Amino acid sequence: MERKWKADLHIHSKYSDQPSDWLIKRFGLSECYTEPEHIYKTAQKKGMSCCTITDHNEIRGCLEILKYPNTFISSEITATFPEEECQLHILTYNISELQFYEIMKLRHNIYDLRDYLAENNIFHAVAHPLCAVNNRLTPEIFEKMLVLFNTFELNGCRDGYQNETLRLLLSTLNPDLINRLAEKHNIKPVGNVWEKTFVAGSDDHTGLKIATKYTESDDASSVEEFLENVIIKGKFEKKGFDLSPKGLAHNLYSIAYQHYSSKFGLEKFVTKDTSLKIVDQLLLNKKRDEDIISKLIMNYRSNRFMASENAHLLTNSLLNIINKTMITKHKDILKGVTLENIADKWFDVADSNINAGIKHLTDFLLNTLKTGNVFDIFHTLGSTGSLYFLVARYFLAYSIFDRDRKFSAELREQFLGEKHPVKVAHFTDTFYDVNGVAKTLQQGLKVGR
Q: Taking the CB of the first residue and of the last residue of the chain, which one, N or C, has fewer CB atoms within 10 A?
């Protein structure tokens, strides 16, 4: 019986364990901690018709769930343009184990890999095409992609601007343009490559956002038919939502929390410490039934937050400040948590606690300077550095989105002729003061407008 089929065609499991991100590698974290079984069960609960796992250069996660119906082997392959050493991620679907091993042999030359995939009729797509995997992506590389590949991914871990740019660029292609690019780069296209098709996937690395973006197609009765409809015939609908920089940062926090929760056995403390429970629920989306407010008040009054009796005064006071912030600002934070707003809620928690912590440490440092205690000064500076480390994930997420948006804008200008005016931001806290500097700023704003 034919029916509408749905699948998240980009998901990672614990076997994606070789991170490319410097911050994750620096602290010895894996890229993902999700069990394959959890992926399958979650996909089923969310109404997916079939399930696969696209780990980086791995298929072990797929092999663990092959015992279930409508599952198939896939992998996200890191391929390389040999002349520029630019890496690209290619999603390969419904492959055999033997095909996977052959693909792994060929992946260091993307031209050989493309030829093998085409000759063996292997379903494949370019993952997040406008994202620079190893910071070597250029408009010329994108031109080569257009000639080499027919199917591109709308990625759930990227923002709407990037995905919309991709759809817009690919909708303007025609045979003359493709032929010019093929001649320019000396690449032989396969098929009508100006007629692009799409897949969509969440690119989930946390276990939280499985099937928040997925591919849907009508008139399918099997995995093979579903993939053929989507990738070959272009019968495709994108479902779900895109991500924001806050969402990407939330993913990074969740990965780190899962690592340290496993390493230090934090789970046994969650039911005993409500502040930790809030962190646990916002980073793992696990609901608890205990009374949040009463336990927050209990924790605050007991003047303890997972700190030993002989802990440094600064550490104790800082943890109590965090607890107090939780009580006064986040007593209702867990109400109405959804996958759409969980990143914003976590940002509110992180923002207020880091600000409160920095203010407290600054006050502590000023008081310490008065006493001249050098050791306390060093301890304070070290604690301040730890708080800024917590902010680093937001810096990283926004820098990634900024880089990719700039590349998208560059392609829009090159292919579509779009050119956006330069925008300048000036930050000041004295704009409304009555002095010469403020007056100059006010006049400059009028001229700029």
A: N
